[in-house]
Amino acid sequence: EQAGGDPKGIRLALEKRFDIDDVRSIGARDVEITRDGSDWLVRAAWERTEPFVANVGFLVTFDKTVAVPTS
User: Fold this and answer.
1) End-to-end CA distance of the chain
2) In this structure, are residues 34 and 40 in contact, taking their beta carbons and an 8 Å threshold?
3) For residues 52 and 63, what is the distance between their CA atoms, to the nearest angstrom?
């Protein structure tokens, strides 16, 4: 699915994809969208800590940036 050439179109596409894939860790509003020349840079970054056993837990980090063409 094509995301569209502006931040609003990109966020709408992300909302649909997150809904379809049941993504709950991050929302479309949490994604950073910045201009880079003729492209949009879309960055999703989050961190989550989950307890495991006693005083042991897991720390999960995610940080991914992709370039989305404007047309």
Assistant:
1) 14
2) yes
3) 23
Q: Which whole-number Å values give the CA distances from 30 to 47, 52, 56, 71, in the listed order?
A: 12, 26, 28, 23
Could you write out the DSSP letters of every residue in 15-50? HHHHHHTT--SS-GGGSEEEEETTEEEEEEEEEEEE
For 18-41, write each residue's pLDDT tens digit. 999 999 889 999 999 999 998 999
Please tell me whether the overall predicted TM-score, pTM, comes out greater than 0.90 for this model. Answer: no
Tokens found for residue 23: 């993504």
Q: Which helix or strand (DSSP H or E) is residue 11 part of?
A: helix 7-20
